[in-house]
């Protein structure tokens, strides 16, 4: 009996570790729009994630899309 309980605890621990690891590496897509002082879309503006080297450049209407790690939000 004791051997089965030990295996159950190991499997439970393994599943918990897999869940936590997959959550840490999950990505979230952040979208937005950058406007200038005339309230027009800022073309070619750089949007950076603070503390990383991830970034995006706005399109012709000022829109951007950036994939961000779930734990950075």
UniProtKB/TrEMBL annotation:
Q: Record's Pfam families?
A: CarbopepD_reg_2
Q: Where is the signal peptide?
A: 1-26
Write the record's keywords in alphabetical order, separated by commas.
Answer: Signal
Q: Which named protein is this? A: Carboxypeptidase-like regulatory domain-containing protein
Q: Which organism is it from?
A: Bacteroides zhangwenhongii
């Amino acid at each position: 009996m004791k051997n089965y309980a030990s295996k159950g605890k190991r499997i439970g621990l393994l599943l918990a570790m897999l869940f936590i690891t997959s959550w840490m590496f999950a990505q979230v897509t952040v979208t937005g729009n950058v406007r200038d002082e005339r309230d027009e879309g800022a073309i070619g503006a750089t949007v950076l994630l603070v503390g990383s080297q991830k970034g995006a450049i706005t399109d012709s209407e000022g829109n951007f899309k950036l994939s961000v790690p779930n734990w950075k939000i």
